[in-house]
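Researcher: Quick test of sequence recovery. Tokens follow.
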């Protein structure tokens, strides 16, 4: 099971969040009340997502995020803030890697944000790490005076100078002022350190920090317009019409994804519990199904998915079409596995852990695995013949690898 760390100086808040998230039983929740405890937890556990807060005077969240950028650069971070939330006008790198969770919020909202972070890890998109543009609103919120030293994996380096949260100057690659700041703003997979503000630092930047970040504190100000070409059929002739289409920003997409995550968890069909399966294994199956469905539900050709025991007992299901009898498929698929293994044995081949069945109406992808509880299970995806079955196969294999960590 994935590990999530919540770091905050408010002991009561930590207890509330831990108890609330633990009731979902989707991940292990660890808490830390100070920097030393947070570093110890990061060393003791493989933390998948970090949650921290800006509103606690007893906890230096910026120092913790700096530590994360240098020592755990691919761990998504969620910042809880009661000081507003930035809305980005364009997608630069991974603004969802450093995600702002505005207070007050429901436990389910935070849980869904954590799930979005876990999905970044499952899909491998967390590899791009934190972007500087997503960090800039944080500097404005904190209103601190400091020097921000930034470096990237591709050997870029620069500095930004803040006084009371206002960007005074920036320097990188022989440039200074606003050109340097805008050049640095698009960097991703950054590592950063905080140090003192040098005396007599001149102010070379008059542009507002949020403008450099291409962001706004108001959601409506972050909505942009773009020209979209739309084909209209008029009297049999194709007429090309230019329309202005209002489009939301990537933060809208992140919120929608977070809401979809928690809604999907509630919608996933879980059949009656088989007497032969323990509750922990059922939770593992439901968690896997949630991640799988979040990943592939919108992919062209997806029809259904299921997790079941090697005896054919369904544990969790999801479907886009209603005419599939998943109970029957779950009952029959293990027989295919046994027949495939028998054939492999006759040919003196290795264990048959997966197979793909192409029919005229559907393509069935089956993957056998041993869950973290030690229980043998099967995961199944059904797609149409026109769907990208190989993509579904890769997603299924990746999910199984995440579900069964290496010893």
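Model:
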């Amino acid at each position: 099971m994935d590990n999530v760390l919540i770091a905050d100086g408010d002991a009561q808040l930590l207890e509330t969040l831990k108890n609330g998230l633990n009731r979902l039983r989707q991940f292990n929740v660890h808490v830390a009340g100070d920097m030393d405890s947070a570093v110890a937890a990061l060393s003791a556990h493989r933390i998948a997502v970090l949650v921290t807060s800006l509103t606690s005077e007893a906890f230096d969240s910026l120092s913790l995020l700096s530590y994360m950028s240098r020592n755990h650069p691919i761990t998504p971070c969620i910042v809880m803030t009661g000081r507003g939330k930035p809305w980005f006008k364009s997608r630069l790198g991974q603004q969802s890697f450093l995600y702002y969770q505005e207070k007050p919020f429901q436990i389910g909202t935070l849980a869904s944000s954590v799930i979005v972070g876990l999905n970044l890890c499952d899909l491998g998109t967390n590899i791009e790490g934190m972007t500087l543009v997503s960090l800039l609103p944080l500097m404005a919120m904190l209103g601190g005076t400091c020097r921000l030293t930034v470096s990237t994996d591709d050997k870029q380096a620069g500095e930004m100078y803040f006084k009371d949260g206002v960007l005074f100057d920036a320097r990188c690659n022989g440039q200074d002022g606003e050109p340097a700041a805008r050049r640095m703003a698009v960097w991703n997979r950054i590592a950063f350190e905080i140090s003192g503000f040098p005396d007599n630092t001149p102010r070379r930047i008059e542009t507002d920090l949020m403008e450099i970040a291409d962001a706004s504190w108001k959601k409506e100000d972050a909505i942009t317009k773009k020209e979209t070409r739309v084909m209209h059929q008029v009297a049999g002739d194709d007429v090309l019409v230019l329309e202005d289409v209002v489009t939301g920003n990537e933060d809208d997409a992140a919120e929608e994804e977070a809401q979809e995550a928690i809604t999907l968890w509630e919608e996933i069909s879980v059949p009656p519990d088989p007497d032969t399966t323990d509750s922990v294994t059922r939770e593992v199956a439901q968690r896997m199904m949630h991640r799988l469905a979040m990943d592939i539900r919108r992919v062209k050709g997806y029809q259904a998915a299921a997790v079941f025991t090697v005896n054919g007992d369904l544990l969790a299901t999801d479907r886009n079409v209603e005419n599939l009898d998943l109970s029957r498929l779950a009952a029959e698929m293990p027989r295919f596995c046994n027949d495939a293994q028998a054939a492999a044995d006759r040919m003196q081949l290795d264990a048959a852990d997966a197979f793909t069945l192409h029919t005229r109406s559907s393509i069935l992808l089956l993957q056998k695995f041993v869950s973290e509880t030690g229980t043998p299970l099967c995961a199944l995806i059904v797609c149409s013949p026109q769907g990208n079955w190989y993509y579904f196969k890769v997603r299924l294999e990746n999910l199984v690898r995440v579900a069964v960590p290496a010893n």
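The chain has four domains: 3-133, 135-216, 219-250, 268-403.
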